[in-house]
Amino acid sequence: MSNRAIELANGEIGSKTPVHPNDDVNKSQSSNDTFPTAMHISIALETNRNLIPQLKELISTLKNKSKEFNTIVKIGRTHLMDATPITVGQEFSGYVTQLENALTRIENNLDFIYELAIGGTAVGTGLNTPKDFDALVCTTIASITKLPFKPAPNKFEALSAHDAIVNFHGALKTLACALHKIANDIRWSASGPRCGIGELTIPANEPGSSIMPGKVNPTQCEALTMIAAQVIGNDTTIAFSGASGNFQLNVYNPVIIYNTLQSIKLLGDGIKSFHNHCAVGIETNGTNIEKNLINSLMLVTALNPHIGYDNAAKIAKKAYSDNTTLKQAALELKLLSEEEFDTFVVPEKMIGH
User: Fold this and answer.
1) Is 321 tagged catalytic?
2) Which of 136, 223, 233, 339 is most buried, judged by most C-beta within 10 A?
3) Which domains does the chain have, with CATH numbers?
4) pTM for the complete prediction?
């Protein structure tokens, strides 16, 4: 920068005249406070420009899907085994809340990212800075970026530690975990098309196999789970690096910011791709949903208040061993009449209030 200024002033490059690199350009600054400041600014910019808008769009789409699917009753699953009924909309509402909570955590943790180390100079004392230098710089940066940057209240902490970034990336890791769970649920639910669960259909974006004609793979779900794995790995690196500061400086700055920015970009781009090429096209497969619901033995849970847990278990075990329906098993065991069974076992009445 000094040489460029000298060049514009028709001076001799490298002469340090009339603009000196230290006395003029770097006046009141040290790499010890400018580097952490640049780290925080870049994290805040990339998060607000890329990640948050993409996450909000995915939340909106899944919220609409939740409303669209709210009356479609399916069988729930715990431990990958049949459980009591739930609506597809209720299932998707869980995804929406996971992502809304993740967004809230990210936005809350940005408050600490907006605190800048500038003005701390070499070790946090602010040596060689004029009065209110930090506040003036932060005000200028905030004006340019339209983000609420402010001076870090304690420059010793801001220079020697990067707890704010460790904490912030923890929120990114939580988002990654949520996305992994959601993507996995969707690809399990869409598995098949004939020999899997097959309760959801997802867009067929490309041929899935070079040898099996007509095969379609859940590539967007798979990509999102791999992104989640990378972000979770990045978090380990950042945590270790954040713990590795010595006295008034942390020399792990480069690896901290590299991994943080990579996580933000991967999550933002991955969410956008998943949204555009998968989430918007998710539909339900009513035939499979109905078949799985009717065949589930866990509907027997509705009988607990009427005949007791043990008798209900007898019905479920008999139906399973004889490969018959719950109703048939109940009638053969003479525990209920057909009318009573039809009155008590109604999936639509088992989904809560």
Assistant:
1) no
2) 223
3) 29-288 (1.20.200.10), 297-349 (1.10.40.30)
4) 0.94
